[in-house]
Amino acid sequence: MSTKLFQNDYTRMFYPKARGYTPMNADGLQADDSRAFLLEGVQIGDLIYRRSAGPLLYAGINITKGADDPRNWQSLPKDYEPCSLELGVDYTAHPSRYPSPSVVSGTSDPSAGFDINPINPTQPDGIDRYKFSTNAAQGSYCALPFGGSSYECTASGVAKLRRFAMIHGTSWYHQTVHVDNLDIQNGDLVVVTGCEKTSYWTCGLFSSAGPNPRLTKTLSVPKVVEGVAQPIDIVESCPLESTPTAGDFWVQSGRPGAAYRLENEPACFAFRGFHISLKASVYNDIRMPWGIRQTLWHALPKVLRPPTRSWPLLMYAAPYHPCAPISELVHSSDARVKTVVVHDNDILSVLQSDEAFLPTDAELAQRMTARYVVLVDSAGRAFLRDKSDVKLSKWERFRLIHRRRFISVRREHLVNDSAAS
After folding, report:
1. What share of the chain is helix, strand, coil (3-state, %, to 5)?
2. Using an 8 Å Cβ cutoff, are 384 and 365 in contact?
3. Other beta carbons within 10 Å of 310
4. pTM, to two decimals
5. Residue 144: closest CA among 309, 22, 307, 327
6. DSSP code for 204
């Protein structure tokens, strides 16, 4: 099974528990050209994008920082202005949300979580060892031997970043794809509004066909010596201990989520944000390079222009994310829609409290269309709003009753962000 398929299965099993997307086979978020990013990790306001094997890459732009900030090492649009966020007002920090040690898991049996305990913590070899186990037959896990923190935008912060994403989404794609020549597919650009961070993490999938499953794993990581980062040479050992009746386990483990263990928690093991997608014709115009090829491209009728997403090989497409099919539904709801922003919280809000795994795309679409309408302004910028928060006309209520897909409602929501008036 390919890495992408493992990532897709991991997303479907772990997304509800992690409250967002987790890269299974990557050292957190990567950015080769930004030392500030490597030392501090992901932050609210970062522009990131997903790659084919699951890694998340930093696009070199944080929309809450000034143009001279070290995190904005990539070239910026000419009209760039940061979106100011204030700690405690627009976003909050929870430094000890995850205890040390702990395991976050999504299992087929909600009552069968993971237990984690240290092994010989007094050994003087510079290595911390932990054992964690579960009786669940199937699921996913993310081990946090040193705990973790959570950062989340408040309602005001989400509204500010949504406004920025809808206004500047097209220019961000133009900057990252056309100017900076980053291989970002339509729909893969994300503005981070929340993240879970730690100094070290490792994750995996497991499944057993036996009647009495028992999975046990051990984890070895280096200690921090006087606050100095220690390279992780011995990253993980995975012996499986089982009873004779447990049956064989199928286990897939991801790479550790940090190349170094740092006290300031640079590794992001889950994130949430606004997923920005453009109308196909708008993205095609951005993706097409300048020069004679663009002239020939525009000479073709729009119906004859092949979608640029089909140009790269399928193996380079980003792995599954539940926001992708929902964004496509929003685009199909109204021909006027040019820019769509869908937030992870929109997906999480329709999941049931006892739901361990993501539902199928068809079930998810049914739940989303039952709860949300699409607000579209005169510029074609759209996002989802709960039906109970929008005052609908008689005709709009009639359409709501007799349609099983998203209905679009014309509102100038960027002028009046309440959108309910």
Report:
1. 25, 30, 45
2. no
3. 9
4. 0.83
5. 22
6. E
